[in-house]
Amino acid sequence: MSWNESYKLSWADFNGKPDYGVSAVAITASGISFGFSVKESDSRVISFTTEVFCHFYPEQSWYKPDVADAHVLGHEQLHFDITELHARKFRHRISQLKLSNNIKKELRELNKAVNKELSLLQNKYDTESNYSRNFENQAKWKTYIAEELKKFSKYKSVE
């Protein structure tokens, strides 16, 4: 499922089997997929195109119906929004690249860097919001991510 500004996740989107062996109430599986094409002439790169997508994976995402509520769903939505933010940042950075014979390497390195940043921010979000239990910090994160998404709105996923 691709990220869409006008669609918010619902518990019906979480189709994975809950893991009752862990303390987590819900898990959002989301990620960025990336591809590129490079056109060459006389051993020189003359152009390149890229595709960056933000996805939610329903089969790997799950929740515990007996303890999950709307607040937890909001926390999970923000994980998906953080993934979208990084897809936007990725597109932004791609737009700043200069055409060169090293473009393939640069794109791969950029992909790796963005995914590392994404992972770090997802973990920081969980830690600072105490997995949604710290309501004050959860609210701060919601505001922060909304502002960041707005900042990079030029690079949003196409609906």
Folded structure, characterized:
This protein is of the alpha+beta class and 159 residues long. The protein has one domain (11-155). 43% of the residues lie in helices and 18% in strands. It contains three helices and four strands; from the N terminus they run E-E-E-E-H-H-H. The strands form two sheets. A two-stranded antiparallel sheet has the order 1-4. It has a two-stranded antiparallel sheet with strand order 2-3. The radius of gyration is 18 Å and the shape is elongated. This is DUF922 domain-containing protein.
In short:
Keywords: Membrane, Transmembrane, Transmembrane helix. The protein has 159 residues and is an alpha+beta fold.
Roughly how many Å is the radius of gyration?
Answer: 18 Å
Strand content: 15-25%
Major sheet size, sense and barrel closure: 2 strands, antiparallel
How far is the N terminus from the C terminus? Answer: 11 Å
The parts where pLDDT drops under 50 for at least 5 residues are none
* Helix/strand order, N-terminal first: EEEEHHH
Helix percentage range: 40-55%
| Number of separate structural domains | 1
What spatial form do the alpha-carbon principal axes imply? elongated
Structural class: alpha+beta
Give the strand order, joined by hyphens, for the main sheet. Answer: 1-4
From the structure provided, what is the oligomeric state, counting identical versus distinct chains? single chain
- Overall number of strands: 4
Number of helices: 3
Q: What's the mean pLDDT score? A: 97
